Amino acid sequence: MNKYLSLIFILLLVTACNSESSGPKRAGLGAGNPFQNNMEIRWGSGALSSPLNLGTAQSFLDDFSPSDFDSSGRHPFEQMAKEWDDSYSSIDFLVEDNSSDIANPGYSNLTQYRDGTFGIYKSFNWFPQVSSSALAITQFFGIRKVDGSGTEYLELTHADIIFNYRDWTFSLDPNNLNDYDLMTVVLHEMGHFLGLPHESNWSALAVMQPYLSTFESHRSPYSSDVNALSDLYQDVGSAPLIFEKTALGNTNRVEEEVSGFFELRADGECRHYIDGELIHIHHKNLK
Ligand SMILES: [Zn+2]
């Protein structure tokens, strides 16, 4: 790995604002982007030279019934992967077949997920540094780079989607008003897996809106989501404009590994962490 680069990881959280046990619930889906100036997060052309192999843990497959599969034999997560792939014709982002089914590793430490496999997993123990109000997280790792116009971005190197099965329940039945729609949450998290931030216009219809209730079901990207994906990837693979250096342009800087996450909690506070140090708190209503 290039010694001038910073390695960063971030969690995008799906968090609940309301934990009442009966009736529809409404959850925040976490902060959109921890970087100043909304630095773009995306996979590079090398990684996307073939579809990314985002595997599905066997423990999800065990939950799926024959009726949950589509006419081409795709299980629910593969159907959602196809939704993202079909929304942008230039790139096949994700593998859509059964070749990537994987075991559920049950890691106790988030950093252990930075293995050689991209996966969608269940956690039954959750993680001490992540709020119990999170429904799911997308943890990703990346390298800071700048493009030919000098704009910094984060090129992804690894990511996983992890569901919080300790504290929450999910359903494949969109008419079930007590549980969160599994396909809606995975479609949202897959958006983060591809680097999408949250939709900033609260009134826009979008899978990437940071809020979700148990009576909502969004199983296809909307035009705002498709436009965001297009904006993010329209230049990937075009001219070789991309070169590597540190964010500050100091090429004498040695490799610096930074880890961090941010979480949106049930109390409405959004907390950003870098290397375990709390660097920022703001309230949703101040954004
Ligand atoms: Zn989110």
Overview of this protein structure:
The protein is α/β, with parallel strands linked by helices and 287 residues long. It has one domain. It is 14% helix and 28% strand. Helix 2 crosses helix 3 (182-193). It is globular, with a radius of gyration of 18 Å. Residues 12, 14, 29-30, 188, 192, 198, 210 line the site of zinc ion.
The hetero compounds bound to this protein are: zinc ion
Low-confidence stretches: 1-7, 13-24, 28-37, 239-287
- Termini separation comes to 36 Å
Average residue-wise pLDDT: 74
Instruction: Tell me the β content.
Output: 25-35%
Order of helices and strands: EEEEHHEEEEEHEHEEEE
Global morphology = globular
Q: In percent, how helical is the residue content?
A: 10-25%
Number of strands: 14
Radius of gyration, CA atoms, in whole angstroms: 18 Å
Give a short overview:
The chain has 287 residues and is an alpha/beta fold.
Which characteristics define this entry?
nine-stranded mixed sheet; disordered N terminus; single chain; binds zinc ion; globular; three-stranded antiparallel sheet; 14 strands; disordered C terminus; alpha/beta; about 290 residues
